[in-house]
Amino acid sequence: MSEQLRAAPLLAIVVPCYNEEEVFPYCLRELKGLLGTMAGDGLIKADSFVLFVNDGSRDTTWKLIGDAVAANRCVRGLQLSRNEGHQSALMAGLAAVDETVEVIVSIDADLQDDVNAIRRMVEAYRAGYDVVYGVRENRETDTWFKRTSAEVFYRLMASMGIRQVSNHADFRLLSRRALDALLRYSECNAYIRGLVPMVGFGSTEVYYTRAVRAAGESKYPLRKMLALAVEGITSMTIMPLRLIAGMGFCICVLAFFATAYVLWRKFSGNTASGWPSIVLSIFFMGGVQMLSLGVIGEYIGKIYLEVKKRPRFHVESLIQNNAPEQ
Ligand code: UDP
Ligand code: MG
């Protein structure tokens, strides 16, 4: 990377929040404190800020964000018109920051990601990197199920040739040019973790220990996790379609030999019995076909959703505190 350090940037920290009233006060305190010390150390510009994106929360999150904005010049709030899900909320936040912002860090509201790693991310940016991934050093704080399913998912993705940073979620730094590049991917169903590596530019990783949620409950139940996994695969690769084609080809080859065998049995006058093989092959083929249709259907559904080019989110309001400095 370049010898000279980049100048201290204007930083925006984007935090998607969905029903996070319990954890919000902690999150606000930590991020505010961090901005203060980093600006004090000359690492970032003094008017750097946190942007909380309220993803249609049904609790008092938006009110808390409003109070925080009224009391702090370094806090801004973005209200979406309804709950759009984590990935869309994050995209909304990334798209909402103004052109003057030079560096963006995205982080979850629950403080599971170590806010102090942001300092190292910014240092890496100043050393010349455009993308800095926050990578969990260990996953001991996750349940056995979450750890194992994540591991299986990463392997599956890697086996299909999708570049994705293991043990990295949406805790990352993007420079202005990396952010602009990411925003050019206009698909409705964006899988940001898969898109960022496609953007390119110099990237590095910072490691941190993932904590348990500071307060409140996970907003990612199993159903949403599975949906994100399917989204990740089907939006990044058409490999499953190729696998189906390959499977079909293998079955055709088998069927060819089976036909030869059956004809040979017929002409040798020995065609009685055999219902187990018929029943089993009907079940087997039925299963394979249904599964294949399902996978193909998933892609057709995706085309259907994409051709409509529906907006990913609607912004209800963007609030910030313009009071003059004390
Ligand atoms: N989130 C969101 N919209 C949703 C679900 C979650 O903005 O529909 C936010 C949530 O407030 C949090 C982040 O996404 O800041 C990650 O969610 P969570 O911590 O519950 O997921 P987990 O860490 O359990 O996977
Ligand atoms: Mg979390």
TrEMBL record:
Gene3D superfamilies: Spore Coat Polysaccharide Biosynthesis Protein SpsA, Chain A
Transmembrane segments: 243-264, 276-300
InterPro entries assigned to the protein according to its UniProt record, in alphabetical order: Glyco_trans_2-like, Glycosyltransferase_2, Nucleotide-diphossugar_trans
UniProtKB keywords: Glycosyltransferase, Membrane, Transferase, Transmembrane, Transmembrane helix
Domain Glycosyltransferase 2-like, chain residue ranges per copy: 13-181
Membrane topology: Multi-pass membrane protein
Compartments, as annotated in UniProt: Membrane
Domain of life from the UniProt record: Bacteria
PANTHER family: PROPHAGE BACTOPRENOL GLUCOSYL TRANSFERASE HOMOLOG (PTHR48090:SF1), UNDECAPRENYL-PHOSPHATE 4-DEOXY-4-FORMAMIDO-L-ARABINOSE TRANSFERASE-RELATED (PTHR48090)
Protein name per the record: Glycosyltransferase family 2 protein
Annotated organism of origin: Acetobacter suratthaniensis
